[in-house]
Amino acid sequence: PDMRGCSGGAQKGVLVSGGVPDLGFVVDGREATSLGSEHWTLDQHGFALLSAKPSALSREAFLAAPMGDVNGHSGAALGDYYQEVRDMALALFPAAERVQVSYHIVRQAGGDPKDSGKRHHVPPKVQGSEAHRVASRMVHNWNFIEFFPPDYTRKLAEQLYAQGPAGEEALLREMVESQAMALTDNPYALMSGAGPELQAEVLALLRDDADYAFVSRARQAIPSPGADDGSTGADAGPAVRNVQPKDPESKAHQVAVGILQCVRRVKLLPESSAKRFASLLHEEGAAGEKAFLDEVVAEHAMPLFENQYALMPGASSELQAEVLALLRDDEDYDLLSRMRGAVPKSEAAQVPKPEPEVQPPAYGVHTDVSAKGWYDQFRQAHPRTSSFGSVPKGFKRRVLLVKFWRGINPETPIVNHHLAMLDKRTVSDCDIAENEISFKGGLIAQYNLAAATDEGRRWVYFPGMRHDEVLCFVQGDLTLRGAGPAEVTFPADRRDHSTFHTAFEDPEAPPDAWPRESVEAAAVVFLPLEAEDGGEELEAQRAARGQSGCWARTPDPVRGGH
Question: What is the pLDDT of residue 340?
Fold first, then answer.
């Protein structure tokens, strides 16, 4: 483990650089102070680690219901766990009048490392070598070929099968160069900013090392252009192979053509998805067509940490509308006709509800919501006319959104793909910006951080989290008011609204470590009614911020002032 000096002495932790995200030094939260993990609190830092909180549910029970909410949708299957989360929330906030667990998500990193017969898994042959680490990870990426954009997969197939040795060499060089891109250009680059020496070393390993066997594995993962990949047959619909953007300079036209290429991979869809699309396209009329187009466009506008192959991540509503219009109205694109041909009407019989799936870890520094995003979610669930949606005149009520995150496998601790928390005292308001992202047909307001790494910021993780340990962190904080000009207010400083976090890959984790399996649950905590103070204290806090709207970082007793 790395040791870093600071005003409080050497600290234990891990250096995370050149990955996604590039966090720099991440402090071991168990060793940062003499108080150990008890040093961290929700009020002071934005997160806390709870101990001795075992769950009665088995790993299998969580994996069988990987997503759910209070409206059913698999949430009922984890009713006992929702009660466990309520109990933990009440232990943290004993005065709370109500705790509502709104949803849960199960996440899993990769697959079973012992399943070598089905997965491309070659540990780095030389431990400590950056070139071998990158080569190993690039080999591992072939396990996820089904998530590659179809047009990119087709290009790789042509290089492998139609262009001979020159095509193989071009494939190798292009893939190595892509892993050395800046993270702004490729947020999943494995060696961002790498120099020519490291790139050459990785290239040689992929080309010449028989254990990595990169080109051979590529052929195993990618079918030849003549193979049955869903692009041929009587039901394939109008050809999409040669469709080109009508306006090559237009982002909307580029995205539209990229989406059309996905039609050729329709046979790779899960059966439930194919049947649902068939029902929308063949049986539900104009409403079904609209729902299908809205879903497709929204999927490609997701942030990269939700869909790493999105063709227009974080796209504006204007760009999404332009793409949708092209796919719906332009006869040269005409996504609806193409998909009807690719998904026969017979598939529509007995359409099941979409089955929830285990999600991958969420890489990329983010908050789930901003203040606006939390308010929007709160109002959707609790209208003003509901019992907890407003407060009487002269009173106020604080409402928190708190996440509870834990491992689900009692047989092994979490040894990789940890969850890192940003100590909220070490970030300035000036570094936080709000933006809206498109997610499953709706807009969600979130916070962005200017950059993941910064000398003054402190990232914290808890290595080796056991099954009975739970990491909790704040993701929303609002106060309902019964008097004054605003019905809802938020903490004056944005860093108190929501805690930044991200999954990250531990460079020191054993290559054969069991993949991280975790569950996160969101709890809405309603604190008791209080007498309204008229807002004078809040206005004084706002005035203290001055004209810049920025608060300085809080002096840190562990690291020292900034």
Answer: 83
